[in-house]
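Morning, I've got a small favour to ask if you have a moment. You're getting the sequence in one-letter code plus the fold written as tokens. Thanks so much in advance, here it is:

===
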Amino acid sequence: MSEIKVVRNILQTNDEITSKNKKILDEKGIYVINLMSSPGSGKTSLLERIIAKLKNDINIAVIEGDIYTTKDAQRIEAQGVPVIQINTGGACHLDAEMIKGALNSLTLDNIDLLVIENVGNLVCPAEFEIGEDIKISVLSTTEGNDKPLKYPLMFEKSGAIILNKLDLIEFTDFDKKEFYKDIKSLNANVDLFETSCVKNQGIDEICSWLMSKIKNKKMKIK
């Protein structure tokens, strides 16, 4: 019973800080994405493509979550946008307290879109709210189409799911029909995208969709 109480207390504390984070971000009209995936899905490459497409039209900032290293943050910084690195030192996810600290290092008045690239993990990141407007999951064709049913929480909680590395699907046994059937059984109303960073496929569609989300949030606070 004591372990259950500890878990409950951790989640309760996280939810309290999340509410404060979200209040701050909502007041500024910042649209916030919690970008999640397993390691190697290509989400950093995908984020690079999205930033390159949108950075001349909107102000973007990124919070990078990794257990160790700053390699992904360096890649994003090369895109010319503000980036804050969070190294968890072993934790498999970002939490609201970590995000609170990162927000203090950003000039929030100058941000339209904040992307939080979570630690690569198919389980823990989905369990912790951090103040986002939407969770987006990225799955690559090289990981196999069985992942949604094996790790359902992330796919259940996502508002959008991106199937990445379409250029490699012919070299795998990935079954798209089964994949989409499983996704719909978990999350019938989720928005779905297919992308290839190598071929720049699907990037325009995601960016158009994101721009509509950002504009809608801006309109709500006016």
The CA atoms of residues 145 and 176 lie 7 Å apart. The chain is about 40% helix and 20% strand. Helices lie at 2-28, 43-54, 71-77, 96-103, 147-150, 152-157, 176-186, 203-221.
